[in-house]
From TrEMBL:
It comes from Micromonas pusilla. This is FAD/NAD(P)-binding domain-containing protein. Belongs to the class-II pyridine nucleotide-disulfide oxidoreductase family. One of its GO terms (biological process) is cellular response to toxic substance. SUPFAM superfamilies: FAD/NAD(P)-binding domain (SSF51905).
Length: 433
């Protein structure tokens, strides 16, 4: 389960001024994903194989093959595993000072931080903004934190450092919230009690990367190594999101942002490799099953052309109907000129892989009174004499009344040639094919 799922009150996620429970936030995210066509399976992934194409993911219920994978398994906060830990978890005990420190239950109270490294010292310093006093519990004889962080802790009068000290249990009040810790001196074995309303673990996290680390490069601590500050991993087509590679910020909002980066990266990768799968458009704004508006259809057509062919869609008009986009294959978009009355448009050649040229056209059907679900548009393509490549003769695609349709064509020709091309609607008919 997500760390957010286990949080009874998320106070620092944008859009929820009154806060939101972790389960409620996750439920809203789930519904939003489903609204846009995602299929969710609540299963445990048992094995992956990134050495084959497509990749193989095995869960307890199914085997899935995929051309691209986003890893978002996160990291698990290290705990002390004291007897009463679960009793007071999120009721005084926490593994994230930045997430939970501002909570009203800690304001002006005595607080404790467990750990002696940079994470623990940083959390102790941070908590002085909210707590009355902070106790730093260090198990050894000295802190392992950097010199700068040690000096800052020593200089802060709101922090008391307890060396050779470990927490072996905790106790609470009648309302079920933490009220104190049972401590033990690691040298003498002497025990004592410390009254605090909050204890924060600053002993690090463990990334959940074990079952795929043999395929994806990880650092010495097990965190996934990402490329160029983005989301890509050492395996092309495999991307990372969230705390699985984030060793610094570890917030719900930063994890969500990196999830967006990973999703866009995966989509771009699939488009570049020619692996995008065409799906029926979903009008999320109108709810499941509702018809898309013409405006949304145009936007969907433009976006689809851009993704499929790697170009930047440009609105054009062609021969009596209204195409909403035209684009050429990567590496750059087609230079579309204003169409002439003859219904043609011209553009410069762009290489599609090593095989030829591509162009996409989105069409908005203009005669809803006469069109049917089997309306047919036929496109013809021609090239100037001496261009040196053969164009596709025609393409036919059915569409519903008032629908937007995307046509995508590939011109197969000599690699490296740079002819211009023209496209024209030669005919259109309405009725059954």
């Amino acid at each position: 389960q997500s760390l957010v799922w286990n949080d009874p009150e998320v106070e620092n996620f944008p859009g929820f001024p009154e806060g939101v429970t972790g389960p409620d936030l996750m439920d809203k995210m789930r519904k939003q994903a489903e609204r846009w066509g995602a299929t969710l399976h609540t299963e445990d992934v048992e094995r992956v194989d990134f050495s084959v194409r497509p990749f193989v993911i095995e869960s307890s219920e199914r085997v899935v093959k995929a051309h691209s994978v986003i890893l978002a398994t996160g990291a698990t906060a290290k705990r002390l595993k004291i007897p009463s830990e679960e009793t007071f978890w999120s009721r005084g005990i926490s593994a994230c000072a930045i997430c939970d420190g501002p909570s009203p239950i800690f304001k002006g109270e005595e607080l404790a931080v467990v750990g002696g490294g940079d994470t623990a010292t940083e959390e102790a310093l941070y908590l002085t903004k909210y707590g009355k006093h902070v106790h730093l519990l260090v198990r050894g004889e000295k802190m392992k934190a950097s010199k700068e962080m040690r000096n800052r802790v020593v200089a802060n009068k709101q922090i008391t450092t307890h060396y050779n000290t470990e927490c072996y249990d905790a106790f609470g009040n009648a309302k079920g919230f933490l009220s104190g810790l049972n401590l033990r001196d690691t040298k003498t074995g002497e025990t004592s009690k410390l009254a605090v309303k909050g204890m924060f673990y600053g002993i690090g996290h463990s990334p959940n990367s074990g079952f795929f680390s043999q395929y994806v490069e990880c650092d010495d601590l097990g965190y996934v190594v990402i490329k160029d500050g983005g989301a890509g991993t050492s395996v092309p087509g495999v991307f990372s999101a969230g705390d699985l590679h984030d060793t610094e910020w570890m917030q719900a909002i930063t994890a969500a942002g990196s999830g967006c980066m990973a999703a866009i990266s995966a989509e771009r990768y699939l488009g570049t490799e020619g692996l995008l799968v065409e799906r029926d458009a979903v009008d999320a704004g109108a709810g499941a099953g509702a018809a898309m508006t013409p405006k949304r259809k145009r936007a969907a057509a433009v976006k689809e052309v851009g993704h499929r062919l790697g170009g930047s869609p440009t609105a054009v008009g062609v021969g009596g109907v209204v195409p909403v986009a035209a684009a050429a294959a990567s590496p750059s978009p087609v230079a579309v000129k204003k169409p002439k009355k003859t219904g043609t448009f011209k553009g410069k050649k762009n290489t599609l892989g090593s095989s030829g040229v591509g162009v996409g056209v989105g069409v908005d059907v203009c005669s809803p009174a006469t069109t049917t679900d089997d309306s047919v548009f036929t496109f013809t393509f021609s090239s100037p004499p001496g261009a040196g490549f053969a164009a596709s003769a025609s393409a036919i695609l059915g569409c519903a009344s008032g629908a937007s349709v995307v046509f995508a064509f590939t011109f197969l020709g000599p690699s490296g040639s740079s002819p211009s091309f023209c496209a024209r609607i030669a005919s259109s008919s309405f009725g059954n094919r």
